[in-house]
Amino acid sequence: LLQSGWHSRLAGLKTLLFNVSRAVTRDVLITFSPKEGPSRLNSTEKGKAGKIHFPREIFQSLGSQTVRVVVTVLNIQQLGMFKEVNQTGQVLDNTVLGITVGESSISGLQEPVQITFPHGELPQGVTPRCVFWDASKGQAGGWRSSGCVTQPGDKGTVCSCDHLTFFTLLLNPALDSSTARALLAVATAGCGVAVAFSIFTVAFCIFVRCRFRLEETVRTNLGLHLNLVGSLLLLNLAFLLNTGLAGRASPSTCRVLGGLTHYCLLCCFTWMALEGCQLYILFVKVLGTYIHHYLAKLCLLGWGFPALVVGVAGALGSYGEYSIQTMDHQAIAHLCWITSKYLLVHYITNCGYFGLIFLFNMAVFGVVTHKSCSLQGTGAVQGHRKPWKVALVAAGLFCLLGATWALAFLTYGISSAAVLYLFTILNSLQGLFIFIWLVVLYYPKTKESTGSLSYIIKHDKTTTASQ
Questions:
Q1: Residues in domain GAIN-B (predicted)?
Q2: Average pLDDT, stretch 126-149?
Q3: Where are the domains of the chain?
Q4: What is the bridge-based pairing of β-strands 126-134 and 166-173?
Q5: Please, which of 168, 281, 285, 322 could form a disulfide with 337 given CB 3.0 to 4.6 Å?
Q6: What global pTM score does this model have?
Q7: Please, which residues bridge with residue 114 across strands?
């Protein structure tokens, strides 16, 4: 079609053809735009046009040949081409760029071809990805990204690819409308279950502390668990209230609700960190760890520090309506949360804060696991401990220290839909998991002390003192 000149009759197709040979001693620069098509450019890129940077490596391999370079800009909406089955992302400006040099296939370039796709600010939650068309994918072909590196920028995205073919920039929403609604339904149902079992857990902890005579260490542990479950209860209630009122609440109410939700989340993270600190004190610093009014001081820190952070964030005006949007700027979910303008506050107070807590708690979990295995190997811990109960204790500690929240760091891009579901289910049911763990671990210990956590700690203290 290109050689016979028929391309001029096809709407949405613009082509630039030129001849090159080995005499080319420098890189070749071409600009393109969906409206004006491609053109040669010998100076620095100007305006809002895209840019193609051909490396010299392509032309140095030509020898004495003179070949034709074809750059084609396609509007796939008008042409009805390059349609992938079940495609979730959207092609930027419906534009596909075809690049060929000569009649041979070019791949495995050491210095990649660089294609700059210009665009403005992308909608929140949209991830650009450099892709090329693979006709062998599926039955009708599809987009692939192997061999291409994506470098997003404020005014455009640079695609560095080691081969020549048809390229485009695919805009992948972190959530599509159906996935967002399904996740919201799962989270709402899970939070409802979590609220019920959080109430059961609080009642159970109070019952055990009041009904049985327990060692001071066990009472402190139960007090810690009680506060953590209480923060989870408040977080679930705040989320249910948030999803129910968001989109209908006044701006001032939404700011208060966003701050409340953020406060409850930070309280959960802080109490997870305090659980890790308590484990460290019990299993590592087993001697000389008495602290006057220990639990009261933990409560001051666990409930007071998040209030300080939220107060500073609120003074900055960080809270308000936050919406998850599709690529055509249609909102699919509303929340009262940290607004898009202050996402740095979210990254610091939530992502950064939890990241530090997660690293510390996983280090403590590793130390506790190693020490427990060492005690069992030396015969320090007596009694018949069933393997399923040991596994449950380990899983409970893992959940108690907030490991399930780390799945949030894996929810990046459209391929993370399964991880999003897993993250939503596990964390909305965290109250249920802790309730089962506490009942199995603590209630039998009111009748027997052999094999209990306090027994291990007591024996470890005795062993350390004798050494």
A1: 30-177
A2: 88
A3: 13-173, 177-447
A4: antiparallel
A5: 322
A6: 0.66
A7: 53, 160
Q: Reply yes or no on whether the pLDDT at 338 is more than 90.
A: yes
* Residues sharing a CB contact under 8 Å with residue 288, sequence separation 6 or more, in sequence order: none
- Taking Cα atoms as reference points, which of 173, 99, 102 lies closest to residue 132? 99
Strand partners, 97: 73, 167
Residue 467 has pLDDT above 70, yes or no: no
Q: What percent of the chain has pLDDT over 90?
A: 26
User: And the tokens for 149?
Assistant: 């590196």
Task: Give CA 227 to chain center in angstroms.
Answer: 27
Counting Cα atoms < 13 Å in the Cβ hemisphere of 371 gives 21
Laid out side by side, the sheet with 28-32 consists of 39-40, 28-32, 50-54, 113-118, 156-161, 148-152
Q: How far is CA 414 from the centre of its chain?
A: 11
Q: Which residue has the higher pLDDT, 77 or 379?
A: 77
CB of 125 closer than 8 Å to CB of 325: yes
CB–CB of 444/451 below 8 Å? no
Q: Would you say residue 55 has pLDDT above 50?
A: yes
Specify the CATH architecture of the domain 177-447.
Answer: Up-down Bundle (1.20)
pLDDT at 413 over 70: no
What whole-number distance in Å separates Cα of residue 325 and Cα of residue 203?
A: 41
HEC profile for 321-381? EEEEECCCCCEEEEEEEECHHHHHHHHHHHHHHHHHHHHHHHHHHHHHHHHHHHHHHCCCC
Interatomic CA distance for residues 419 and 43, integer angstroms: 46
- State how far the Cα of 287 lies from the Cα of 219, in Å rounded to an integer: 18
Q: Lowest mean pLDDT of 249-263, 293-307, 345-359, 401-415, name the range.
A: 401-415
Residue 270 and residue 353 in contact, taking contact as beta carbons nearer than 8 Å: no
Single-letter residue type at 123: P
- pLDDT (0 to 100) of residue 348: 93
Enter the CATH code of domain 13-173.
2.60.220.50
Q: What tokens appear for 208 in the block?
A: 């055990």
Cβ partners under 8 Å of residue 354, min gap 6: 269, 402, 405, 408
Q: CA-CA distance, 364 to 9, in Å (whole number)?
A: 69
Other CB atoms closer than 10 Å to residue 203's CB: what's the count?
A: 11
The 10s digit of each residue's pLDDT in 193-219 is: 889 989 998 888 888 878 777 777 778
Provide the pLDDT for residue 366. 86
Mean predicted lDDT score pLDDT of the chain: 79
Please indicate whether residue 37 or residue 316 has the higher confidence score (pLDDT).
316
Instruction: Tell me whether residue 185 is exposed, middle or buried, using C-beta atoms within 10 angstroms of its C-beta: 0 to 12, 13 to 18, 19 or more.
Output: exposed
